[in-house]
Amino acid sequence: MQLNDHQIQDINTIAAWLALDQLPKDGTLEVDLAILAGHAVLPNVEAVIALAKKYQLPLLISGGIGHSTSAAGRDDCQPSALSPDRHRRQGRSAAAGRDGARVR
To answer: What is the mean pLDDT of each run of 10 residues along the chain (104 residues)?
Structure first.
């Protein structure tokens, strides 16, 4: 795919908006729940998990089998704290438990 300068500028504008971090660096948050709407941007996923851990928040993970599910199960993916056991993700959402979905 060849992008022209205008398209590249548009993509960078959207990416900057999506990357906007409005969370305080220090202090407290007045929230009851962290919600991770499933997607494939691993730095965002890791940030939400770190935030939930830092502030002792319950974490709601939503999503299902989608465009990045197969990538999450590949053997050549770099391991991370997000990697579920391989047998649990075969044929199911990466966030799914044995019965296909669960809330903890």
So the answer is: 91 79 73 81 79 90 73 55 48 46 43
- Look at the chain and count its residues: 104
DSSP state of 62: E
Give the angle 69-51-64 at the CA atoms, nearest 5°.
Answer: 20
Q: Which residue has the tokens 């590949």?
A: 74
How far apart CA 45 and CA 25 sit, in angstroms, is 18
Q: Please state, as a whole number, how many other Cβ atoms lie within 10 Å of the Cβ of residue 83.
A: 13
**Contact yes or no for 57/92 (Cβ under 8 A):** no
Give the pLDDT of residue 100: 44
What is the distance between the alpha carbons of residues 61 and 101, in angstroms, rounded to a whole number?
A: 10
